[in-house]
Predict the 3D structure of the following.
Amino acid sequence: MHVFNLAKEQEWDPKKHVEKVLAELEDGEGQSGDYTVACWEPGQISPHHCHPHCTEIYFCFSGGGKMRTPTGTVDVVPGSFCVHPPGEVHEYINGAQRTMLFRVRHGTDMLSRHLEWPSNPEFKQSADDGDYYRRHPPGY
């Protein structure tokens, strides 16, 4: 059993959102995962990315913003959660206040593939990620 107090685990950084892995999981049958607290300052935005081999679930503990996928954009408010199946491209856009999200990932590999990051002028897509998206267009 794992027990966490998200209020005690929170960490903040005005330059980028903080993803603090609280525990990693291995089931012995090829499945793994992790539990994370993600802390976002006002206006911070994640890269457009996906996890080809795992499901990712975000639960909004406090604050809120918007989650964007190729099929639409939804409001994220305290108490709501978003489930991204393997391979679904998504981006989180934080709102006007600090936000704390609890994230769970589960699958065969936690690898992220980054498509773009418009809010980060220093971002450069890796050759492997570019190849992945040429083979798996996101459908925007």
